[in-house]
Amino acid sequence: MDPEEPADTPSHLPAHLTIYGQLREMILCGDLAPGQAVTIQGLTGMLGGSATPVREAIRRLTSEGALLFQGNRRVSVPVLTLAEVEALTFGRVALEAELARRAALVATPALTQELRAIDAALDRAIGQGDARGYLRLNHRFHMTLYAAADSAILSQAVNGFWLRAAPSLRIMCGRLGTQNLPDMHHETIAALERRDPGAAAAAIARDIRQGMDNIRAVLLEAPDDASRDAAAS
């Protein structure tokens, strides 16, 4: 599959799962900015279909902490507090570094080749100032890496962390610009090629801390202005 193309949603899935996948991707790509309220009717119009599967998808994402009911048939992406940023940083570093460590133990040339292709597409998105493409491909890089670790329990927790953090990453892109978003992907791939689990874990831990530190800095600077930047980007 072309790394620049979004993953296809299986056509045989029930409507509520299809809508869930579409809405989940909107959250991961920052299409809904933290604090931005949208109506169920508005989401139904954006995603297609009827209101029932949209409501079911919203209930699931609300239970996962990715959406917040606002009343009057409105939902929003929660605005992170600094305490929540600290908690997300701790959880992401602990679990994602462990997944990277496990992936390095079983890394294959096919995995590193796939990661290089995703990272090359990500670099093109950065060069083009494509914030949404950057976020989508950055997520795909990490999830492809973690899938190799083959740990459903850890991956499920990590997926929840990403749903909480990703919209604020879009804020960061809007404020800092894609050109100022360093990562540790090359170092991670090199560690996988050497089958060096410690180096892979350290690279991913540093990658996460860089991103979360930028989120923290933007929230400290001007939270309300940052949310407007994300909505406009």
Describe the structure.
The protein is mainly alpha-helical and 233 residues long. The protein contains 10 helices and 3 strands. A 3-stranded antiparallel beta sheet has the order 1-3-2. Helix 1 packs across helix 3 and helix 6 packs antiparallel against helix 7 (152-176). The longest helix is centred in the last third of the chain and has 25 residues, at 152-176. The two termini are 27 Å apart. The model is unreliable at 225-233 (pLDDT under 50).
Total number of helical segments?
Answer: 10
- What ranges have pLDDT less than 50 throughout 5 or more consecutive residues? 225-233
The main β sheet shows up as: 3 strands, antiparallel
- Shape assignment: globular
Measured as a percent range, the helix fraction is: over 70%
Instruction: Write out the strand line-up for the largest beta sheet, numbering strands in chain order.
Output: 1-3-2
- Strand runs, count: 3
Strand content: under 5%
Note the run of SSEs as H and E.
HEHHEEHHHHHHH
Distance between the termini: 27 Å
Structural class call reads: mainly alpha
If you average the pLDDT, what whole number results?
88
What is the rounded Rg? 17 Å
In short:
This protein has 233 residues and is mostly helical.
List keywords for this structure.
233 residues, mainly alpha, disordered C terminus
Map the helices and strands.
Layout: H1 15-28, E1 37-39, H2 40-47, H3 51-63, E2 68-71, E3 74-76, H4 82-105, H5 109-127, H6 131-147, H7 152-176, H8 185-193, H9 197-221, H10 223-232
Antiparallel strand pairs: 1-3, 2-3
